[in-house]
Amino acid sequence: MVNINNFGIIGGDKRQLYCARSIADDGYGVYLYGFDKCDNTLGIEYMELDAILKQCDAFIMPLPVSKDGKTLNAPFSSETIKIDSNFFTRFDGKPLFVGIKNVIPYSYENIYDYGSREEFAVENAVPTSEGAIEYAMREYEGTINSSRCLVAGYGRIGRILSQMLKGLGADVTVSARKLKDLAFIRSCGMKAVMTSDLGKGYDLIFNTIPEMIFDAHTLAHTACGAIVTDLASLPGGVDFEAAERLNIKAIRALSLPGRVAPRTSGIIIKNAVYNIIKEENL
Amino acid sequence: MVNINNFGIIGGDKRQLYCARSIADDGYGVYLYGFDKCDNTLGIEYMELDAILKQCDAFIMPLPVSKDGKTLNAPFSSETIKIDSNFFTRFDGKPLFVGIKNVIPYSYENIYDYGSREEFAVENAVPTSEGAIEYAMREYEGTINSSRCLVAGYGRIGRILSQMLKGLGADVTVSARKLKDLAFIRSCGMKAVMTSDLGKGYDLIFNTIPEMIFDAHTLAHTACGAIVTDLASLPGGVDFEAAERLNIKAIRALSLPGRVAPRTSGIIIKNAVYNIIKEENL
Amino acid sequence: MVNINNFGIIGGDKRQLYCARSIADDGYGVYLYGFDKCDNTLGIEYMELDAILKQCDAFIMPLPVSKDGKTLNAPFSSETIKIDSNFFTRFDGKPLFVGIKNVIPYSYENIYDYGSREEFAVENAVPTSEGAIEYAMREYEGTINSSRCLVAGYGRIGRILSQMLKGLGADVTVSARKLKDLAFIRSCGMKAVMTSDLGKGYDLIFNTIPEMIFDAHTLAHTACGAIVTDLASLPGGVDFEAAERLNIKAIRALSLPGRVAPRTSGIIIKNAVYNIIKEENL
Amino acid sequence: MVNINNFGIIGGDKRQLYCARSIADDGYGVYLYGFDKCDNTLGIEYMELDAILKQCDAFIMPLPVSKDGKTLNAPFSSETIKIDSNFFTRFDGKPLFVGIKNVIPYSYENIYDYGSREEFAVENAVPTSEGAIEYAMREYEGTINSSRCLVAGYGRIGRILSQMLKGLGADVTVSARKLKDLAFIRSCGMKAVMTSDLGKGYDLIFNTIPEMIFDAHTLAHTACGAIVTDLASLPGGVDFEAAERLNIKAIRALSLPGRVAPRTSGIIIKNAVYNIIKEENL
User: Fold this and answer.
1) Which residues of B touch C (CB under 8 A)?
2) pTM of this prediction exceeds 0.80
3) Is the ipTM of this complex over 0.90?
4) What does the angle CA A131 – CA A137 – CA A140 come to, to the nearest 5 degrees?
5) Chains near C, with 3+ CB pairs < 8 A?
6) Using a CB-CB distance cutoff of 8 angstroms, which residues of chain A are in contact with residue B127?
């Protein structure tokens, strides 16, 4: 990181603040823009746009960088910040790190998408899994310990979530489509079922598969008496209307990392940015 | 359980409802008294006092059976139920199961205290530990996974809580006074410290020791930057005023089983009652 | 499995016997050929070749089916069994299940290679990992519990072995090349290092990577004072000569499943055969 | 440890050598007596009795200090060393640390029994448990992972062994007599049974209870098809004759720490000696 001494954090929520804090703790200069409505900036200095553009060598923008493709995702800013060509020109070719860069209607040369990185996705599966457990604890009138849990899907979240549930003492079943994943699941001392044949008798069900797995039929046969948490990104994998009809409590749990663990989420963003800097020799 | 076919559940909160439900699921007759304000009695039938006294062979009262030594602990009852000699006489010598019997100002012969049983205390350490984790998840802006946790005390709660934290992927240190407990802690792959020398650098601290462990001095040296959850029964083990002065977030977490997991708590009451019935050949 | 009622087990070692036993326990007819020197065939009936060819609907051969490409791998047979075109013709087109089919110098139409299946490899990582632990326990004068272990590589064996070592209470570090694997490793509460930078201070090192990772330089810097177990298939990943020169104890641990757990290995073969039958509608 | 600078290690086996090595690594002077037949003393200097008595401030003897009550337990000594009053007089009142002091037919004032300490017993439960697993791995033709294990007794060894078996992925049942222990067992995600009602269907059974639990009747009903390892000190808890009659493989596993992990055992002795020195201000 020979060429970057000062980072500008442009917009975003608490995660970006914690990201800023963690970079500052590593000894770099860090400055904020787009946080004027924020009471507590964790000790990080606020700057005007002109000043921060001049002061900093690289800039970190939020995940997603924009929600509408026109303005910066900056909930702590009192003003709307337009992300048009004019905006990007002012960064003068310095490196920009953003989450989900293809929502930006402008092609900036020196831009890096930390949100598309594999290790970023795996690291975020940790706060997602913990958030799912926190939500389930809140809703369920029993304990996770000794409850019968089904985790549908054995991708990043399925692997980490099932392991945490087991660590709390639950009786865990995990579903997968591939025989090799069923073998991995069993090697962990958990029960494995095919996703096409989920069984029943669960207290808590967590869906991690971004497909309509829990349609009316499957809900009726698998989820009666259970609480269903849908962790799959929209449109999700649970038929919420059918769940209501069947009197099955179903929770849509989206964007958990930022909600339940902004501090960890901010550090995960920092880690991804550092990894890019290393790989790209910035 | 040859002589008991019908159980009367007299007063109490959601835990007693779940206790009732679970006994009914075992095939026994179960009836409620003191729940007239409750909307959803989980399908258990409500009775008037005269009827229930006649119908049932044994009665289960809440934990604690009374909060003031004069009236039944019955938050779902619209009337106050006095627990005077007159009240107890009406039970006609049939077995009564209560939590904390020595708050009752009357000596009934056939009374059993499920709340004083050792296995009851151990089983309740499970919802207590999960509740502590749920509270910590809510307050902490990071994840339990990879956080540095200190559990002060290695009694029932310390044993179960530390194991659950480790199961979530935390970096767990446990304190104890006895060398043999330190050895047990280490055998679990956790760090062990003497309670007299707690160290520092923790994100989350859980006190389980019913003594003033976290006084101002210890808070200042051990807990800076941490969230402290006090699980010890009153007067507790944390100086909350000092914590506020030192700007340390401290949470008093009492009566967790009933709050976070009434269903599990009700089943734990049932288990204890069944164990008494077996031991006493009722 | 509509068309197969009787299985012939042709050649192999103890694993094939346990495979036979387990199939028989499922209710199928099972017969052995090539086991005449075996004292205890676990209650499975022995047959002559003509009889077994007539009696059975499908045949299972060992892993590897041949060691020299000319004769059947049949250590319990008193005669050499040639696997020439004549041999295969006698099977009359019935399904054959073999391990590593490309060592056979003949193209039989209805042949299936259970040894190349992914779930077979994952399931075998379990006995391999346990075997590695058994060998390490035997050689090491300390306990695995609280020892400092390095697992090089986070493939099938790395994942399962590291988890088992942690389950015994070891202080586990795992190496990987991909950042996403490092993230998975950390999510399990283990330390993660890049394979290019293994560190030092280990008591036990397990190599699972089929490349020369532990050359003289790495041995000298990483493995001094440690016991090194090489689990990678030949030519392996440890310079054994350098290890000897450096006075580092190094163990080559090959073909562990059959050695340490023939019963489990036999059941794993059965599972793979059943999976093929299901997929191919045999 | 203000008054002790040099330790004499008098007799014993490999454990005492590792104890010596570990004390020397802490910076103390350490000398050996009674090891003249030993090829490799791990770099510790050998001395004659007169010299070592003069040189050292405290002495550590083995566990047990004597097997016959007359001579020192010194398998590496070419001479027999009598432990009569004459022998002890020569130590001149300096502190002696021994294992099982009541086998000594002489009352020495400044003698401490490290073998009777509670934390010593807990620490030794770790190598005992690992040794039991190593023996079971060697005998069993399946894997511990996914095997059905019964641990009889939930004392020191039961607690640690059951946890290790679970950590390897076994399906673990533990027996206890007290209801509160059954509750602890269940809280760990393991099955709990009363010791009086062990059930059946196990692959591996480990007895830790020093009473005749596995008599002919219990063996016949609980252990058919299983391998039974008896970890209880003599006379043990398994009827080995009945086991043979019933064709059940039974292993007597005694003195495991010294056999399977002399290094760890030596460090455990050191820890206990240090704890005594601290407590007694020696």
Assistant:
1) 145-146, 166, 169-171, 186-189
2) yes
3) yes
4) 135
5) A, B, D
6) 143
